[in-house]
Amino acid sequence: MIREYLEQLQAQVMDLLGPQIRRVRERTDPVVAQARARYQKLERRERVLVQIAGALVAIFLAYNLIVSPTIDYVDGLDEQIASREHDLAGVQRLVATYKLVKDDLRAAQHDTVPAGKDFSLFSIVEASFSKSIGHDKIASITPQADKKLPDGLVQYGVQLKLSDVSLDQIVGALYAVRTLGVPVGIANLHIERRTPNTHSFDVDLTCVALGHSA
Protein backbone atom coordinates (compact mmCIF):
# COMPACT_ATOMS: atom_id res chain seq x y z
CA MET A 1 0.00 0.00 0.00
CA ILE A 2 2.80 2.38 0.88
CA ARG A 3 4.65 1.45 -2.30
CA GLU A 4 1.59 2.27 -4.40
CA TYR A 5 1.22 5.60 -2.62
CA LEU A 6 4.86 6.46 -3.32
CA GLU A 7 4.48 5.51 -6.96
CA GLN A 8 1.41 7.74 -7.25
CA LEU A 9 3.24 10.58 -5.54
CA GLN A 10 6.19 10.17 -7.91
CA ALA A 11 3.83 10.22 -10.89
CA GLN A 12 2.17 13.42 -9.66
CA VAL A 13 5.55 15.08 -9.16
CA MET A 14 6.66 14.08 -12.64
CA ASP A 15 3.41 15.41 -14.08
CA LEU A 16 4.06 18.76 -12.42
CA LEU A 17 7.76 18.99 -13.21
CA GLY A 18 7.76 17.19 -16.55
CA PRO A 19 6.97 20.27 -18.70
CA GLN A 20 9.56 22.37 -16.90
CA ILE A 21 12.20 19.67 -17.27
CA ARG A 22 11.48 19.39 -20.98
CA ARG A 23 11.79 23.16 -21.41
CA VAL A 24 15.11 23.15 -19.60
CA ARG A 25 16.36 20.30 -21.80
CA GLU A 26 15.21 22.11 -24.91
CA ARG A 27 17.27 25.14 -23.88
CA THR A 28 20.33 23.26 -22.69
CA ASP A 29 20.55 20.52 -25.32
CA PRO A 30 21.80 22.89 -28.05
CA VAL A 31 24.41 24.31 -25.72
CA VAL A 32 25.53 20.85 -24.67
CA ALA A 33 25.65 19.74 -28.32
CA GLN A 34 27.77 22.75 -29.27
CA ALA A 35 30.12 22.08 -26.37
CA ARG A 36 30.50 18.45 -27.43
CA ALA A 37 31.13 19.47 -31.01
CA ARG A 38 33.80 21.94 -29.99
CA TYR A 39 35.34 19.35 -27.71
CA GLN A 40 35.54 16.84 -30.56
CA LYS A 41 37.27 19.41 -32.73
CA LEU A 42 39.98 19.99 -30.15
CA GLU A 43 43.37 18.40 -30.50
CA ARG A 44 44.36 15.60 -28.18
CA ARG A 45 46.55 17.88 -26.05
CA GLU A 46 43.73 20.41 -25.71
CA ARG A 47 41.31 17.67 -24.74
CA VAL A 48 43.68 16.56 -21.97
CA LEU A 49 43.85 20.15 -20.71
CA VAL A 50 40.05 20.41 -20.76
CA GLN A 51 39.77 17.12 -18.87
CA ILE A 52 42.27 18.34 -16.26
CA ALA A 53 40.36 21.62 -15.92
CA GLY A 54 37.10 19.69 -15.53
CA ALA A 55 38.65 17.46 -12.87
CA LEU A 56 39.94 20.50 -10.98
CA VAL A 57 36.51 22.12 -11.11
CA ALA A 58 34.94 18.88 -9.89
CA ILE A 59 37.45 18.68 -7.03
CA PHE A 60 36.80 22.33 -6.12
CA LEU A 61 33.05 21.79 -6.08
CA ALA A 62 33.35 18.55 -4.11
CA TYR A 63 35.57 20.24 -1.52
CA ASN A 64 33.28 23.26 -1.07
CA LEU A 65 30.03 21.31 -1.18
CA ILE A 66 31.03 18.14 0.70
CA VAL A 67 34.46 18.17 2.34
CA SER A 68 34.45 21.69 3.79
CA PRO A 69 30.97 21.43 5.37
CA THR A 70 31.96 18.04 6.77
CA ILE A 71 35.11 19.50 8.33
CA ASP A 72 33.12 22.39 9.81
CA TYR A 73 30.59 19.92 11.20
CA VAL A 74 33.33 17.79 12.78
CA ASP A 75 34.97 20.91 14.27
CA GLY A 76 31.60 21.89 15.70
CA LEU A 77 31.25 18.45 17.23
CA ASP A 78 34.73 18.73 18.75
CA GLU A 79 33.78 22.06 20.34
CA GLN A 80 30.55 20.60 21.68
CA ILE A 81 32.41 17.58 23.07
CA ALA A 82 35.00 19.86 24.72
CA SER A 83 32.21 21.97 26.20
CA ARG A 84 30.42 18.90 27.53
CA GLU A 85 33.67 17.58 29.00
CA HIS A 86 34.25 20.93 30.70
CA ASP A 87 30.72 20.87 32.12
CA LEU A 88 31.22 17.29 33.27
CA ALA A 89 34.48 18.21 35.00
CA GLY A 90 32.68 21.07 36.76
CA VAL A 91 29.93 18.72 37.93
CA GLN A 92 32.51 16.22 39.16
CA ARG A 93 34.25 18.97 41.16
CA LEU A 94 30.93 19.99 42.67
CA VAL A 95 30.19 16.38 43.59
CA ALA A 96 33.64 16.01 45.17
CA THR A 97 33.15 19.26 47.12
CA TYR A 98 29.72 18.12 48.26
CA LYS A 99 31.18 14.83 49.50
CA LEU A 100 33.90 16.66 51.43
CA VAL A 101 31.36 18.98 53.02
CA LYS A 102 29.14 16.03 53.93
CA ASP A 103 32.13 14.22 55.45
CA ASP A 104 33.07 17.33 57.45
CA LEU A 105 29.49 17.74 58.60
CA ARG A 106 29.26 14.06 59.55
CA ALA A 107 32.48 14.42 61.55
CA ALA A 108 31.15 17.58 63.17
CA GLN A 109 28.05 15.73 64.30
CA HIS A 110 30.29 13.52 66.42
CA ASP A 111 32.25 16.52 67.76
CA THR A 112 29.49 18.56 69.38
CA VAL A 113 28.94 20.14 72.76
CA PRO A 114 26.43 18.58 75.20
CA ALA A 115 22.83 19.32 74.35
CA GLY A 116 20.61 21.07 76.86
CA LYS A 117 19.65 24.49 78.16
CA ASP A 118 22.38 24.39 80.84
CA PHE A 119 25.19 24.66 78.25
CA SER A 120 26.67 28.17 77.96
CA LEU A 121 29.57 28.76 75.57
CA PHE A 122 29.82 32.31 76.93
CA SER A 123 30.55 31.11 80.46
CA ILE A 124 33.05 28.49 79.28
CA VAL A 125 34.97 30.96 77.09
CA GLU A 126 34.95 33.73 79.70
CA ALA A 127 36.27 31.38 82.37
CA SER A 128 39.00 30.01 80.07
CA PHE A 129 40.35 33.41 79.01
CA SER A 130 40.08 34.87 82.51
CA LYS A 131 42.21 32.01 83.78
CA SER A 132 44.79 32.05 80.96
CA ILE A 133 45.41 35.82 80.51
CA GLY A 134 43.39 37.51 83.25
CA HIS A 135 39.97 39.08 83.11
CA ASP A 136 41.46 42.59 82.84
CA LYS A 137 42.87 41.69 79.39
CA ILE A 138 39.37 40.98 78.03
CA ALA A 139 38.30 44.31 76.51
CA SER A 140 34.89 42.92 75.51
CA ILE A 141 33.10 39.59 75.23
CA THR A 142 29.83 39.31 73.31
CA PRO A 143 27.68 36.24 72.67
CA GLN A 144 26.51 35.82 69.09
CA ALA A 145 23.08 34.69 67.96
CA ASP A 146 22.75 30.94 67.52
CA LYS A 147 23.05 29.90 63.88
CA LYS A 148 20.94 27.03 62.57
CA LEU A 149 22.81 24.53 60.38
CA PRO A 150 21.67 21.56 58.27
CA ASP A 151 21.03 18.13 59.78
CA GLY A 152 19.73 19.52 63.07
CA LEU A 153 22.93 21.30 64.12
CA VAL A 154 23.28 24.73 65.70
CA GLN A 155 26.41 26.89 65.90
CA TYR A 156 27.13 28.85 69.06
CA GLY A 157 29.50 31.80 68.95
CA VAL A 158 31.21 34.24 71.29
CA GLN A 159 33.18 37.24 70.04
CA LEU A 160 36.10 38.54 72.11
CA LYS A 161 38.44 41.52 72.02
CA LEU A 162 41.69 41.16 73.94
CA SER A 163 43.76 44.21 74.77
CA ASP A 164 47.49 44.66 75.48
CA VAL A 165 48.47 40.98 75.51
CA SER A 166 51.83 39.44 74.75
CA LEU A 167 52.50 36.82 72.12
CA ASP A 168 53.02 34.17 74.80
CA GLN A 169 49.67 35.08 76.36
CA ILE A 170 47.95 34.74 72.99
CA VAL A 171 49.45 31.31 72.40
CA GLY A 172 48.59 30.18 75.90
CA ALA A 173 45.00 31.42 75.66
CA LEU A 174 44.43 29.70 72.30
CA TYR A 175 45.94 26.47 73.60
CA ALA A 176 43.70 26.63 76.66
CA VAL A 177 40.63 26.92 74.43
CA ARG A 178 41.67 24.03 72.24
CA THR A 179 42.23 21.78 75.27
CA LEU A 180 38.89 22.46 76.94
CA GLY A 181 36.72 19.55 77.96
CA VAL A 182 34.20 20.53 75.27
CA PRO A 183 34.98 20.98 71.55
CA VAL A 184 35.44 24.74 71.00
CA GLY A 185 37.06 26.17 67.88
CA ILE A 186 38.68 29.50 67.00
CA ALA A 187 37.43 31.52 64.03
CA ASN A 188 38.10 34.99 62.60
CA LEU A 189 41.36 35.48 64.44
CA HIS A 190 42.89 38.93 63.89
CA ILE A 191 46.05 40.11 65.69
CA GLU A 192 47.24 43.72 65.55
CA ARG A 193 50.50 45.05 67.01
CA ARG A 194 50.15 47.94 69.43
CA THR A 195 52.15 51.18 69.29
CA PRO A 196 54.45 52.36 70.70
CA ASN A 197 54.85 49.09 72.66
CA THR A 198 55.55 46.70 69.80
CA HIS A 199 55.68 43.70 72.14
CA SER A 200 51.96 43.94 72.94
CA PHE A 201 49.03 43.10 70.72
CA ASP A 202 45.29 43.60 70.41
CA VAL A 203 43.32 40.55 69.35
CA ASP A 204 39.87 40.04 67.82
CA LEU A 205 38.60 36.47 67.67
CA THR A 206 35.47 34.37 67.72
CA CYS A 207 35.03 31.12 69.59
CA VAL A 208 32.54 28.70 68.06
CA ALA A 209 31.02 25.37 69.04
CA LEU A 210 28.53 23.01 67.45
CA GLY A 211 25.59 21.41 69.17
CA HIS A 212 22.35 19.66 68.35
CA SER A 213 19.31 21.87 68.19
CA ALA A 214 16.65 21.15 70.75
Give structural attributes.
4 helices; single chain; elongated; 214 residues; alpha+beta; 61% helix; Alpha-Beta Plaits; four-stranded antiparallel beta sheet
What does this structure look like?
The chain has 214 residues and is α+β, with helices and mostly antiparallel strands. It has a domain at 121-212: 2-Layer Sandwich (Alpha-Beta Plaits), CATH 3.30.70.60. The chain is built from four helices and four strands. It has helices at 2-41, 44-109, 121-132, 167-178, and strands at 138-149, 153-165, 185-193, 201-212. It has a four-stranded antiparallel sheet. Helix 3 packs antiparallel against helix 4 (167-178). The longest helix is centred in the middle third of the chain and has 66 residues, at 44-109. The chain is elongated. The mean pLDDT is 78.
Euclidean distance between termini CA atoms: 76 Å
Q: What's the total count of β strands?
A: 4
Mean pLDDT: 78
Proportion of helical residues:
55-70%
Q: Number of helix segments?
A: 4
The CATH homologous superfamily of the domain at 121-212 is called Ribosomal protein S6/Translation elongation factor EF1B
CATH class of the domain at 121-212: Alpha Beta
How many whole angstroms does the radius of gyration measure? 43 Å
Element pattern in H and E? HHHEEHEE
Q: Categorize the overall geometry.
A: elongated
Largest sheet: 4 strands, antiparallel
CATH architecture of the domain at 121-212: 2-Layer Sandwich
What are the low-pLDDT stretches, counting only 5+ consecutive residues below 50?
Answer: none
Strand order in space, largest sheet:
1-2-4-3
